[in-house]
């Protein structure tokens, strides 16, 4: 990949350009043209192009989520059964876009996190890319079946975003993966925990059930603070908004629930009485109207306002 120190002019993007090392050159070139049209400085190096690509991609993701929200809440869908709309793949794409925004933000803010590694950034970008592929698959699988309007528009947004993320990933791997200046993995302590796991977290992971102080206890027989796991998750989310580890103890029993943990509710720890004792099951499937993505027994979701 070219490492020219002179700005890249839009007219020269087909010659010696940082875009030559990206899988989707047209999408990359649109960034240069956008910068040129807005009178912003053009990237002098591929690393600068990577930073521009990230911010351009994040802007695309925000725009896509806004458009999906408009479609979702439009007059066209006010008369549509919401269960049917959710099964069309629309809600999947909105949840996945929300997660993509979080992943891209982590990459952009990576310099503020001294514990991040080369593998972290690569994983975040790869996860964001996978989200768009999952969205497109969900739409292909269910959109036509439920006669989802604007299907082509949503699919096009996912495709464009996929190309931008792919370019960002390629630029990162090409310009950071070969320098040797960024660690490719985290070192392990003598007890096999990564160095970024705090001592309090290590104690929590190594503790027995009797040693853990839970914020909520789930029990089917009524002996806990909640009868269902879902209720406990919602209560913990409301009471621990200032952060910290959210610990939920699930007593022995079989819980038929579809758990949807808010994507912004981080550090949730669920622990039970052991394999075969504490069991979580559900039966969502495509035949009953669920999308493949939505059929997960435990997953995260976007909070719609």
From TrEMBL:
Signal peptide: none annotated. Residues 8-171 form the Pectinesterase inhibitor domain. One of its GO terms (biological process) is cell wall modification. Pfam families: Pectinesterase (PF01095), PMEI (PF04043). SMART domains: PMEI. It is found in: Secreted, Cell wall. InterPro entries: Invertase/methylesterase_inhib, Pectin_lyas_fold, Pectin_lyase_fold/virulence, Pectinesterase_cat, Pectinesterase_inhib_dom. Pathway: Glycan metabolism; pectin degradation; 2-dehydro-3-deoxy-D-gluconate from pectin: step 1/5. Its main location: secreted. GO terms for molecular function: enzyme inhibitor activity; pectinesterase activity. Keywords: Aspartyl esterase, Cell wall, Hydrolase, Secreted. In the N-terminal section; belongs to the PMEI family. In the C-terminal section; belongs to the pectinesterase family. This is Pectinesterase inhibitor domain-containing protein. The lineage of its organism: Eukaryota, Viridiplantae, Streptophyta, Embryophyta, Tracheophyta.
């Amino acid at each position: 990949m070219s490492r020219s120190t002179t700005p890249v002019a839009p007219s020269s993007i087909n010659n010696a350009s940082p875009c030559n090392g990206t899988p989707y050159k047209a999408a990359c070139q649109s960034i240069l043209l956008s910068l040129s049209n807005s009178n912003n400085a053009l990237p002098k190096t591929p690393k600068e192009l990577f930073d521009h690509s990230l911010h351009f991609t994040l802007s695309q993701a925000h725009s896509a989520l806004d458009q999906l929200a408009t479609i979702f809440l439009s007059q066209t869908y006010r008369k549509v059964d919401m269960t049917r709309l959710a099964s069309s793949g629309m809600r999947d794409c909105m949840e996945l876009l929300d997660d993509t925004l979080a992943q891209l933000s982590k990459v952009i803010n990576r310099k503020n996190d001294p514990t991040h590694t080369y593998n972290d950034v690569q994983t975040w970008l790869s996860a964001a890319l996978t989200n768009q592929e999952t969205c497109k698959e969900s739409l292909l699988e269910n959109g036509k079946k439920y006669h989802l309007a604007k299907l082509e528009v949503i699919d096009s947004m996912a495709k464009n975003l996929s190309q931008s993320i792919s370019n960002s990933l390629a630029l990162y791997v090409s310009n950071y993966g070969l320098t040797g200046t960024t660690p490719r993995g985290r070192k392990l302590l003598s007890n096999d925990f990564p160095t970024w796991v705090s001592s309090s977290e290590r104690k929590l992971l190594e503790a027995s059930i009797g040693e853990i102080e839970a914020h909520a206890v789930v029990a089917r027989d009524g002996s806990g603070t909640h009868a269902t796991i879902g209720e406990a998750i919602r209560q913990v989310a409301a009471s621990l908004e200032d952060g910290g580890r959210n610990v939920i103890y699930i007593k022995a029993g079989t819980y038929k629930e579809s758990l949807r943990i808010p994507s912004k509710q981080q550090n949730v720890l669920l622990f039970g009485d052991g394999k075969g004792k504490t069991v979580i099951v559900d039966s969502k499937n495509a035949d009953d109207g669920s999308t493949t993505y939505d059929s997960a027994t435990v997953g995260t979701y976007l909070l719609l306002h």
